[in-house]
Specification:
Shape of chain B: globular
Largest sheet of chain B: 7 strands, mixed
Strand content of chain A: 15-25%
Distance between the termini of chain B: 38 Å
Helix content of chain A: 25-40%
CATH topology of the largest domain in chain A: Rossmann fold
Number of helices of chain B: 8
Number of domains of chain A: 2
Structural class of chain A: alpha/beta
Oligomer: heterodimer
Number of helices of chain A: 16
CATH superfamily of the largest domain in chain A: HypD, alpha/beta domain 2
Largest sheet of chain A: 6 strands, mixed
Order of helices and strands of chain A: HEHHEHHEHEHEHEHEHHEHEHEEHHH
Strand order of the largest sheet of chain B: 8-10-7-11-9-12-13
Number of domains of chain B: 2
CATH class of the largest domain in chain A: Alpha Beta
């Protein structure tokens, strides 16, 4: 398949891994932002191909994982209403709020529907004028334009029985939050290719400069990731700290301007609570006042959610790259996909789910990752 | 629907009863009309002895295989098939995996009040067509009607009986170190066809379900003297789940090679887009055959002759890893990893 196979070529992957080993003279710690990248790394064993001097830490870029329990509780409250058809991306349905998840609401008779695109939810609203349709708008800058387009369309068409529960989050404020932590040991970032396809990468340049840290916009295929790591290590070895673009087949410096304009028309920046991390100033998007009647939080009276019981889950530390899933004493024992203690074990992009799927038992054929934790 | 069935018309006076009523399950005249005009008309009075509560059989062998399965697929019609065809083939395939030649099926229908009679007719005709292709008879049946809102149009339960005409014992415990693992074609078409057909997904492919009867392919292997150690059709959970089940119940180590596992370009594209792993996508016309290594090439030739439109391949082998009970996949980029069962259904990722 074009644009896939050439980035999974075993020969080229091996060559890049060898080249990274050749240029690495010191120990470096690099974080990949995006959960999709985490999965590609763990699934393909890319970290096992790297020299021991390079440590990869997994970042907060799993939209499902960072959506706060309080926001999921609001979703559950809405989905439980008799007059509501609640639409969500599939990945979100299994993630527990403070007490339960959306799938259990569905089992109790709630009309919870999995959609593949936010515009599908608007079409459901058009076909069900006697019901109120709520779409759970989650995700980073990647999903924001399509979610903005859905509510823009609903307003244009006057589909007043449609509203969105908005939990959108933004990458750059999360990077700064991680870099500002006193015990931060990161030396380089792989920025998320899809996010930068929308936003470009100019907004990362002040971060690279301020924190003296290389940031390389990176794709998702094995070769993309190894090339991104190579570019990051090369900068580190050379003592440089710039923003570079590995994913140039999709990303331009300015990004997708029409998508950014639509986002700016529909959304405004707000402070947002991140699950396991806490409040990050100006890290979220909410609907502008002009779209208030499409804002589920404004048009429904939603009861205050229960406080979350955090227990022994360390997902907040994992999302900030301060711990790895295998560092957690509950991992694979008291915490499994069937009995998750936190969102990082539930979501298909969560780091713990990736480790559980591909690493719970080390194959004798896989080089162990010992000495790197 | 093809050729000889094209001209079949629903014989029930549908102007009177265009939809299924609760009374069609009530045991009275309407129910008998339904049996006479739909089920006997479609399945044939010569094999379906509707006047009795059961069928008398003369299988002609003292070794039988017996299976049952229920079908609740939605939508009822999808590219490449429908619930009726799927029910017949699914049950036939379960028998074939025991090394049995499928002979007789029962068909239990749970109909939802309000189901279009024409829809039931189309499904019944499709079942007859599938049964003819798989060379089985639908010999007994049952119908119930449930209140509107208490079903999804139609559910079908099918039980099947097949005869075993050889002395092979086929099952996971017969697997031996070094056995070749053959897959009869490309994977994932059924699951993607269903996903693409589901309401709400604006996602266009020309992918058709792979649903097909497998008994002919299996019988050809056995008739040719291939010593099949284990056979398993790939259904829900896909290739990965089937291999994991076999590894666990046989206590063997199964090694799969991703490069040799064929995935149609459109199926791959859909999986890339939705974040699915084709190894876990459902199939309804694919199976794994574990055969002695020295018979692998001959088995490949036979499978190719049985279904010339799909390409079988050796996708792995049974390793000498002792009692590991695990499946290891050599990925396309050359790394290796353990395959594990999914917790539940695959859900599409967000971005």
């Amino acid at each position: 398949m074009k644009f896939i196979d050439e980035y999974r070529d075993p020969e080229a992957v091996r060559r890049y891994a060898d080249e990274i080993a050749r240029i690495t003279t010191r120990s470096w710690t690099i974080m990949e932002i995006c959960g999709g990248q985490t999965h590609s790394i763990v699934k393909n064993g890319l970290d096992c191909m790297l020299p021991d001097k390079i440590t990869l830490l997994h970042g907060p870029g799993c939209p499902v994982c960072v959506t706060s329990a309080a926001m999921i509780d609001k979703a559950i409250a809405l989905a439980s209403r008799d007059d509501v058809i609640f639409c969500s991306f599939g990945d979100m349905l299994r993630v527990p709020g403070s007490r339960r998840d959306l799938l259990s609401v569905k089992a109790d008779g709630g009309d919870v529907r999995m959609v593949y695109s936010p515009i599908d939810a608007v079409h459901i609203a058009e076909k069900n004028l006697d019901r109120r349709v709520v779409f759970f708008a989650i995700g980073f800058e990647t999903t924001a334009p399509a979610n903005a387009a859905a509510v823009y369309y609903a307003r244009q068409k006057g589909i007043d029985n449609f509203s969105m529960l908005v939990a959108q989050v933004l990458v750059p404020p999360a990077i700064e939050k991680i870099l500002n932590a006193p015990d931060c040991r990161l030396q380089g970032f792989l920025a998320a290719g899809h996010v930068c396809t929308v936003m470009g990468y100019a907004e990362y340049e002040p971060i690279a400069e301020k924190y003296r840290i290389p940031i390389v916009v990176t794709g998702f295929e094995p070769l993309d990731i190894l090339q991104g790591i190579h570019m990051t290590v090369w900068q580190l070895e050379q003592g440089r700290a710039r923003v570079e673009n590995q994913y140039s087949r999709a990303v331009k410096r300015a990004g997708n301007l029409p998508a950014q304009k639509l986002m700016a028309d529909v959304f405004e920046t707000v402070d947002r609570e991140w699950r396991g991390i806490g409040l990050i100033p100006k890290s979220g998007l909410a609907l502008r006042p002009a779209y208030r009647k499409f804002d589920s939080e404004a048009v429904f009276d939603i009861a205050a959610p229960d406080p979350e019981i955090v227990g022994e889950c360390i997902s907040g530390l994992i999302l900030q790259g301060r711990q790895k899933p295998s560092d957690c004493p509950a991992f694979g024992k008291r915490c499994t996909p069937e009995h998750p203690l936190g969102a990082t074990m539930v979501s298909s992009e969560g780091a713990c789910a990736a480790y559980y799927a591909y690493r719970q038992k080390e194959s004798p054929h896989i080089k162990p990752t010992s000495g790197k934790h | 629907m093809s050729s000889s069935y094209d001209n079949w018309q629903c014989p029930l006076p549908i102007s009177d009863y265009p939809k299924i009523l609760l009374a069609h399950g009530g045991g009275g005249r309407l129910m008998h009309d339904l049996i006479d005009h739909i089920f006997i008309a479609a399945f044939g009075a010569d094999t379906l002895d509707a006047e009795h509560d059961g069928a008398r059989l003369d299988p002609g062998s003292d070794k039988l295989a017996f299976t049952t399965d229920s079908y609740v697929v939605h939508p009822l019609f999808f590219p490449g098939g429908d619930i009726g065809l799927l029910a017949v083939y699914g049950t036939v395939n379960d028998l074939a995996m025991c090394g049995a030649r499928p002979k007789y099926l029962s068909a239990g229908f749970i109909l939802e009040e309000g189901l279009e009679t024409e829809t039931l007719w189309k499904i019944a005709v499709s079942m007859r067509q599938a049964a003819d292709k798989a060379r089985v008879g639908i010999v007994t049946g049952d119908t119930k009607v449930v209140d509107k809102g208490h079903g999804h149009g139609i559910y079908i339960n099918i039980a099947g009986i097949g005869i075993i005409e050889h002395n092979l014992v086929i099952g996971p415990r017969r697997i031996r170190d070094g056995d070749a693992i053959i897959l009869n074609g490309d994977i994932g078409r059924h699951g993607i066809a269903i996903i693409a057909a589901r309401e709400g997904l604006e996602f266009e492919t020309t992918i058709e379900s792979d649903c097909a009867p497998l008994a002919d392919s299996v019988m050809r292997l056995i008739d040719d003297g291939i010593e099949a150690h284990c056979l398993r059709d790939l259904t829900r959970g896909g290739l990965a789940t089937a291999a994991i089940e076999i590894a666990r119940s046989s206590g063997t180590e199964i090694l799969l090679d991703e490069k040799s596992i064929s995935v149609n370009e459109q199926v791959r594209g859909a999986c890339e887009l939705l974040g699915y792993d084709p190894l876990y996508i459902a199939n309804e016309g694919r199976y794994l055959a574990f055969v002695p290594k020295h018979q692998a090439q001959r088995a490949l030739e036979i499978m190719r002759e049985a279904t010339p439109n799909i390409e079988p391949a050796i996708v792995g082998r049974v390793g000498a890893g002792g009692d590991r009970g695990e499946v290891t996949l050599k990925s396309a980029i050359g790394s290796e990893r353990i395959l594990d069962m999914l917790s539940g259904e695959q859900l599409p990722r967000i971005c």
